Amino acid sequence: MPITNNEQKSISAKELKWGLILMVMASFLSGSFLIGIAYENLSDLFAFAGLGILAIVAAITYTVGVKPYGYMGLGDISVLVFFGLLGVGGTYLSIIVLLLTILFLVFVY
C-alpha cells in the first residue's frame, strides 16, 4: 500500500485540510461560473449545479469521513457512476444544447 504525504509527515493534517477546502472552493466556483455561462434556463442551471455539488460531495466522502465508501468496495461503482454515467451523460447533454444553439445561429443569421 503506498505511503501518503500525510503518513510521511511531509504535510500536516491541518495543511491537508486547508488544501482540501481550497480545492473544493475552487471546484465549486469554477463550476458555478461555467454553469452560469452555459445555461440560461433555470431548470437546466439548477440540475447541473445539483449534479456538480453531488460530484463534489462524492469526491470528498470517497476517502474522508467516518466510513469512506472508497474503502468499502464501492469505489468501482462510484467511478462508473461519476466518470461514466454522470460525466459522459452530462457532457452529451451539454453538447446537444450547444449544437442546437449553433445550428439555430447558423440558420437565423
TrEMBL record:
<keyword id="KW-0808">Transferase</keyword>
<keyword id="KW-0812">Transmembrane</keyword>
<keyword id="KW-1133">Transmembrane helix</keyword>
<keyword id="KW-0472">Membrane</keyword>
<feature type="transmembrane region" description="Helical">
    <location>
        <begin position="20"/>
        <end position="39"/>
    </location>
</feature>
<protein>
    <recommendedName>
        <fullName>1,4-dihydroxy-2-naphthoate octaprenyltransferase</fullName>
        <ecNumber>2.5.1.74</ecNumber>
    </recommendedName>
</protein>
<feature type="transmembrane region" description="Helical">
    <location>
        <begin position="77"/>
        <end position="108"/>
    </location>
</feature>
<dbReference type="GO" id="GO:0046428">
    <property type="term" value="F:1,4-dihydroxy-2-naphthoate polyprenyltransferase activity"/>
</dbReference>
<dbReference type="GO" id="GO:0009234">
    <property type="term" value="P:menaquinone biosynthetic process"/>
</dbReference>
<feature type="transmembrane region" description="Helical">
    <location>
        <begin position="45"/>
        <end position="65"/>
    </location>
</feature>
